């Protein structure tokens, strides 16, 4: 898709690309600022190249205005999601508690994996699933 966006940008030219600049920059900015673990470095490099191409094509001033607008939108969305999450914590404490327990469980599992990778002979204790025990009727 990024290659397609770059090709369309070059094909449209300087004057006709300006109305679509925000639409093109949004996924590129998202890819540049993402920090998830399984990120593909070639994708990040490609988005950087297309941003440089757009900068040369449109001009620095128009590009800077559009890029700052995209940044502003992304920050507003991030703040809105954070606010919604905080409101949900107050409105639905049971859902928030479940989310917190899940996060702590994942953190413990990550810690155990890290210990195993650092010390291969040491086996960290794993939490056993008691699914069958939970299903049995205990008096």
From TrEMBL:
Mark the transmembrane ranges.
Answer: none
Pfam families the UniProt entry points to: UTP20_C
Question: What Gene Ontology terms describe where this protein resides (cellular component)?
Answer: 90S preribosome; small-subunit processome
Kindly give the InterPro entries that the UniProt entry links to this protein: SSU_processome_comp_20, UTP20_C
**Which stretches does the entry tag as region Disordered?**
95-139
Recorded superkingdom? Eukaryota
Protein name in UniProt: UTP20 protein
This protein's encoding gene: Utp20
